[in-house]
């Protein structure tokens, strides 16, 4: 066959496919990789003296195509994964859960209404908007320590109204963001 890269690829096609089959363990993937590699080699411009081992270069190209396809395939769910997701039981739609969630929302709304305006705004800024305590302090013209106190009072009040225990975070990052 001719001495071009495409000719070399065609001459070694069966060998490349066999070696890929040993690595990839999927006939379908080998077929796809070989086809894509063929198209890439066909689209290449002539490379004179560019490689001392042209067959190794071509096989490496095929391996790179396989790696690209695996990365692309990993971004998508398989058919089996889609089926599993479609057939998952959704406990959130259980009438008892829905009823309890609605009660919790109503209790939280009442608890928020009972807070001072500043406590409510600090709670929302810290927990919903995830603003750092330093930004909240600057916004309200108070100290970071005061933000922490108002936040703790608001959380304790809401926890009491919802019959839930509030867990206070400690450590170096506890006051930076909420």
From TrEMBL:
<dbReference type="InterPro" id="IPR036388">
    <property type="entry name" value="WH-like_DNA-bd_sf"/>
</dbReference>
<keyword id="KW-0805">Transcription regulation</keyword>
<feature type="domain" description="RNA polymerase sigma factor 70 region 4 type 2">
    <location>
        <begin position="106"/>
        <end position="158"/>
    </location>
</feature>
<dbReference type="GO" id="GO:0006352">
    <property type="term" value="P:DNA-templated transcription initiation"/>
</dbReference>
<keyword id="KW-0731">Sigma factor</keyword>
<dbReference type="InterPro" id="IPR013324">
    <property type="entry name" value="RNA_pol_sigma_r3/r4-like"/>
</dbReference>
<dbReference type="InterPro" id="IPR013325">
    <property type="entry name" value="RNA_pol_sigma_r2"/>
</dbReference>
<dbReference type="InterPro" id="IPR014284">
    <property type="entry name" value="RNA_pol_sigma-70_dom"/>
</dbReference>
<dbReference type="InterPro" id="IPR007627">
    <property type="entry name" value="RNA_pol_sigma70_r2"/>
</dbReference>
<dbReference type="GO" id="GO:0016987">
    <property type="term" value="F:sigma factor activity"/>
</dbReference>
<protein>
    <submittedName>
        <fullName>RNA polymerase sigma-70 factor (ECF subfamily)</fullName>
    </submittedName>
</protein>
<dbReference type="InterPro" id="IPR013249">
    <property type="entry name" value="RNA_pol_sigma70_r4_t2"/>
</dbReference>
<dbReference type="GO" id="GO:0003677">
    <property type="term" value="F:DNA binding"/>
</dbReference>
<dbReference type="Pfam" id="PF04542">
    <property type="entry name" value="Sigma70_r2"/>
</dbReference>
<dbReference type="Pfam" id="PF08281">
    <property type="entry name" value="Sigma70_r4_2"/>
</dbReference>
<dbReference type="InterPro" id="IPR039425">
    <property type="entry name" value="RNA_pol_sigma-70-like"/>
</dbReference>
<comment type="similarity">
    <text>Belongs to the sigma-70 factor family. ECF subfamily.</text>
</comment>
<keyword id="KW-0804">Transcription</keyword>
<feature type="domain" description="RNA polymerase sigma-70 region 2">
    <location>
        <begin position="10"/>
        <end position="75"/>
    </location>
</feature>
């Amino acid at each position: 066959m001719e001495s071009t890269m495409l000719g070399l690829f065609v001459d070694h096609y069966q060998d490349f496919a066999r070696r890929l089959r040993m690595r990839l363990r999927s006939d379908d993937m080998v077929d796809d990789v070989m086809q894509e590699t063929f198209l890439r080699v066909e689209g290449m411009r002539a490379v004179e003296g560019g490689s001392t081992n042209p067959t190794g270069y071509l096989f490496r190209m095929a391996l790179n195509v396989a790696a690209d396809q695996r990365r692309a395939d990993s971004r998508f769910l398989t058919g089996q994964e889609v089926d599993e997701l479609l057939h998952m039981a959704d406990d959130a739609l259980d009438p008892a859960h829905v009823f309890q969630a609605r009660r919790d929302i109503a209790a939280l709304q009442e608890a928020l209404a009972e807070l001072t305006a500043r406590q409510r705004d600090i709670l929302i800024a810290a927990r919903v908007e995830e603003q750092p305590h330093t930004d909240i302090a600057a916004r309200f013209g108070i100290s970071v320590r005061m933000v922490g106190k108002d936040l703790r009072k608001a959380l304790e009040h809401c926890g009491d109204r919802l019959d839930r225990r509030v867990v206070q975070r400690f450590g170096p990052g506890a006051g930076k963001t909420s």
